[in-house]
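U., I forgot to send this yesterday:
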Amino acid sequence: AAAVTALAAAAERALDSGSLRMASRNATRALDLLAHSADGTRPISSATGRITAQLLVVRANAAIDRRDAAAAAADLDRVQRLADRGDDILLSAEVHRLRGMLANNSGHPTEARVELGIAIDLLRGTTRSDLLAGALRLRGFIEMFGGSLADAEWFFGEADGLYQSIDDERGMAYVEQHRAWISFLSGDMATARQRLHGAATALGQMGDRNGVGWAFGLLAFVALLLTIRWFGRRVFDAATADRAAVMFALTPLTFVLTHVAIFDMLFVACLFGALACLIVAARETRLRLQVLGFVLLSLAVQIKGPDRKSTRLNSSHVALSRMPSSA
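Result:
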């Protein structure tokens, strides 16, 4: 029992810090230890059933973030059976919330809205403000890309209020990160960058590597978009620059890099920024831009170099604040 409890706690810590493989590994080890006494047939009211459900939820969360839809769906089906047997509203709401995430990741926004709507309705009758805020935040995220920005802001506003009421700094940082997208999609690039820098700093102080990675990925997207437009206007003309920026923004691979290949996106942003600075510096004889180009080039090497991931994230924070679009 002590080993299972320790592994469950370790799995949750790993999930909070963004160590998805470690979270899945610890949860699986704990479930294996429980296998001889908890095979999914015991009611959720038992201690064994509760910790089994907790471990399955952690592993499903990790699987969703790793884009392993089959594994996540299998775990959520097991959790739903446990919730139904124990008539556990909170656990059932968590299943619907995670199924909403899974549906959204799989490109089914309508199904995601339905699942999250059920989760929100269930959670409004409970005292778990943290879970309700999380469901509202995810609902807003879906509206941001598949609905209206006004609706997205409404969901984010309610979620932010709940996070503030329970002093959940991580939740508030994620809301700030999502609101940065609203600023970006509204054309307010300066506010988008400011919000992303603030979210990355807050999440980094909490040790949430997954959250920092998302913030930096989105920040690299914004920085690279602005740099492309800046470079196009310096070398060609405004119309060409705007067309190039739009083409970049709409390329599917751009979103793949932003979401699942954080260091590749950062590397591309710094490398392109370096080349843009050096080319413009040569054309206009600007020493400051030449120096900035070499700084960005060295930071690109650090990002993809052999040093530790934490060091690369720190280098990324410096790099993205020195992109030529802000020079």
